[in-house]
Amino acid sequence: MTDEPRAYVLDTGPLSHFSRSQWLGVLKAVLKDARVVIPDVVEAELRIGAVQNDHLRAVLDADWIEVIPLDAPEHLSAFAYYEQRLVGADGRNVGECGVLALAETMAHAVAVVDDRVAGNAARGRNVEVRRTLGLLCDAIREGLLTVPLVSALADDLMRDSYRLPFGPGGFARWADENGLT
C-alpha cells in the first residue's frame, strides 16, 4: 500500500470555464491535498487560448497545477490509442487524449473530463474517469461546499456556455433527483 496521494488530471474545458467564471479557487479547494496535473497538450491548448482570453493566465500561473510532458513510451502509446478514437480531421479532443493517456499511465490518477465521448473511450482501460460535476457533488457530501454555492457556480458556468445536465437554477433539483448530494 502506498501513501502516494491521488492525482487529478484535468482537461482544458473545466479549467477554462472555472477560470472565466472566477471559480478556479473553488476547484482548487475541492481537490484539496490531491496532486493536480495537466498534460503538456492541455498546457499548449491553454497557452494558445490565453492569447485571446486573459482569464487563462490564472490557470497557467497557478502554482498548484503541475504540467507533465507526455514523453514516456507508455504515455505515447496510450495517447495514440485515444487519438485514434477521439481526434477527427478538425484536430479537436487532443487535450482529452492527453488527459486520458496521463491518467491511465499514472498511479492513483483520475481523469477529469466532461466530454461523454472521451469518457466512453476510456471504458475497459485502466483509467478512472470523473466529471467535474461529480467532484462538486462529492465536495457537498464531504461538507466542503453547499448546495446553494454549487448552484450559483453551475449557473455562472452555464452563462459561459458550459454544458450541464440541467438548466439555470436546476442544480439542487437535479442533484436531489439523482441522489448525488
Structure description:
The radius of gyration is 16 Å and the shape is globular. The chain has a 5-stranded parallel sheet. It contains 10 helices and 5 strands; from the N terminus they run βααβααβααβαβααα. Helix 7 links the parallel strand 4 (109-112) and strand 5. With 181 residues, it is of the alpha/beta class. 52% of the residues lie in helices and 11% in strands. Helix 3 runs antiparallel to helix 6. The longest helix is centred in the middle third of the chain and has 14 residues, at 73-86.
Question: What's the story with the biggest beta sheet?
Answer: 5 strands, parallel
Spell the H/E element sequence: EHHEHHEHHEHEHHH
Distance from N terminus to C terminus (CA atoms, Å) equals: 30 Å
Main structural class = alpha/beta
Strand content: 5-15%
Helical run tally: 10
Mean pLDDT: 93
Side by side, the strands of the main sheet go 3-2-1-4-5
Computed Rg? 16 Å
Shape type: globular
Given as residue ranges, the uncertain stretches (5+ residues, pLDDT < 50) are none
- Share of helix, binned: 40-55%
Beta strand count:
5
